[in-house]
């Protein structure tokens, strides 16, 4: 009769049980982290920063221009012309439907007018700006209402 040695190792069922436990733990961690919500919150943080950047730049331009936003100014031999603020318009270089705030670059905004992280372009940044009758300026990020974040709404700042 043959003498069988004891085989060392794991059985197939033991390996399957361990893989199942790892899969369950991974699913719990992914649900707890909720990456869609985390990315949505990151985009909203960028939007809030961008709206404040635009509003600060407009405020600085108004302060430098004795209470008015529109008009021409020259910096370093280059003349920039700012449009008149008024009713709510999207910010972008497509001046047929949007208001072009590129006059704020580079004097008031160092690099470029901020774009919405979910697909804003230079032609349409997906942000809005308006000035009411008493001079208050409001900048908004309509895309701030993310589906992944319950109860999120358009983000606006008025000064």
TrEMBL record:
The chain crosses the membrane at residues 12-33. InterPro entries: N_methyl_site, Pilin-like. The keyword Protein transport does not apply. It comes from the Bacteria. Pfam families: N_methyl. Keywords: Membrane, Transmembrane, Transmembrane helix. This is Type II secretion system protein GspG C-terminal domain-containing protein. It comes from Candidatus Giovannonibacteria bacterium RIFCSPHIGHO2_12_FULL_43_15. The lineage of its organism: Bacteria, Candidatus Giovannoniibacteriota.
């Amino acid at each position: 009769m043959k003498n069988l040695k004891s085989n060392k190792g794991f059985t197939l069922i033991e390996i399957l049980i361990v893989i199942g436990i790892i899969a369950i733990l991974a699913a719990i961690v992914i649900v707890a982290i909720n990456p869609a919500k985390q990315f949505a919150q990151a985009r909203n943080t960028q939007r809030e920063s961008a709206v404040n950047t635009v509003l600060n730049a407009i405020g600085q331009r108004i302060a430098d221009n004795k209470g008015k936003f529109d008009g021409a100014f020259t910096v370093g031999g280059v003349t920039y012309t700012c449009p008149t603020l008024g009713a709510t318009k999207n910010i972008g270089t497509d001046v047929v439907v949007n208001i072009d705030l590129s006059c704020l670059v580079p004097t008031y905004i160092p690099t470029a007018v901020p774009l919405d992280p979910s697909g804003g372009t230079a032609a349409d940044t997906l942000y809005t700006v308006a000035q009411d009758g008493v001079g208050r300026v409001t900048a908004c990020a309509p895309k701030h209402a993310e589906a992944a974040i319950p109860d999120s709404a358009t983000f606006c700042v008025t000064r």
